[in-house]
Amino acid sequence: MKTLINSILLCLCSMQVFAGVAVIVHPNNGDTIDKKAIENIYLGKTKSFPGGGQAVPVNLEGGPVREAFDSTVLGKSSSQLKSYWSQKVFTGKGTPPKEVASAEEVIGLVSSNPNIIGYIDSSQVNGSVKVIAEF
Amino acid sequence: MKYKQAICLGALVMSSAALAEVNISGFASVVGGQVLEGSGVEEFGLEPTFLADYPLVGAYTEEISFEPDTLFGIQLSADLLEGLSATAQIVSRGANDFEADFEWAYLSYEFNEHWTVQAGKKRLPLYYYSDFFDVGFAYPWIRPPADNYTWQIFNYTGVSVLYNYLIGDWTLTGQAYFGREDDEPNKLLSEFFFGEPTREIWKDIGGIVAQLNYEWLDIRLTHMQYTNERYIGGEQVEWDGQTERDGKFYGLSVNIDWNNVLLLTEINRLTLQGDDLDTYLVTLGYRFGSVMPFVSYSDFDDGNEIHNTTSFGVRWDFHPSAAFKIQYDDVSDEGVGAGTEDSWRVAGDSKSISLGVDLVF
User: Fold this and answer.
1) Any stretches that span the bilayer, and where are they (chain B) (predicted)?
2) pLDDT tens, B118-133?
3) Is the confidence at residue B80, as pLDDT, over 80?
4) A48/B contact by beta carbon, under 8 A
5) B238/chain A closest Cα distance in angstroms
6) B33-46+124-360 belongs to which CATH class?
């Protein structure tokens, strides 16, 4: 029971740590990218932006922003996603998005390549990237 | 280090540099179990047995054992860029005395976003779970229901073409494949059914798979055909005076993952020389956060060999990469001619318990 209360508290705390999830692309990317399109790209169902350009998703390695993105945008728990990708990886039908360790790395990749899509804590957004959706 | 990763990823994205990135991933299951109560098969001198994995003869008895379902797998995948990659999967199983074998070894070439061709040795994608049979983390049970996954051939060497289309809110994926398998000695037939070294050949294997997916709904249709030849103890087997026989396989699977409800169904028919071998399974689970209890029923019936399994279990995702499972299986073996020389029983009735951990890395 104590553990349960602790984990609830921990959840509440970690929810307060970040402002929200901002999905970001290169400023030159003019596509309209809705939640469904983001989901399709992150689940490997498509490798293109709605406008046709190549889309390469980047994931954060872990932490509250990743968890919020997985549950809010993809609608799956981290184990459900692991299970989903393990089916694809071990049958040669797909590979999960690359993972990087920090928001700075996501910004660095997104701002230097119009094909890359990423997400970070809303409070860390700067002028080098374009926010297409916030959750 | 950060800089290096960025360069690596950048190179991968732009496909410009001749840089091979090797990914190592893997899966493991450590499972123990035992038969609590079983009839055995008197006419074969078989003690109470639960045949949990037909192709590899993973069988539990009244003594606790870890061999039948325990396995370790490592996958190496080299990305050679420009759409080319090479993948190998090495699996070591308790049911095979932990000998490590190359289960998969293939080259893959991505023509474009929609089409990929793969050539080499792969898992035969017959049933829904066939090609990730070893990856326990990817499904609810300890192992896919044994009554359905009974086929003696589970790998093939050949070519397959994979496709992937997003149509509105639906995805259409699947593959077409062609190949053969010459397995000597075939473990299931040699050790369990004929008691003599058996060479099992499936040639001209050709199949198609089409899978439609919409958010919570997943429908899979498949057809496969092959030509069978068999040698028992070096002698070629004849069926109705012929050394070859043709098999045609049809399968339909409908899975629903809606809110916390998981419903998995599969129905299959193999027509072999005019005989129909029918299998089906139904599993219903409900997710309470990270804990999912489930009930399952699976059935095999070819008119002579008849058996089914009722299972209850729980999967608990105690870690993002690991799941604990416990499962109770009640097998009913209704093979005709029980107690006679012409008995079609397989392993008799049994009630068993198994538990373990599946993980992926």
Assistant:
1) none
2) 999 999 999 999 999 9
3) yes
4) yes
5) 36
6) mainly beta
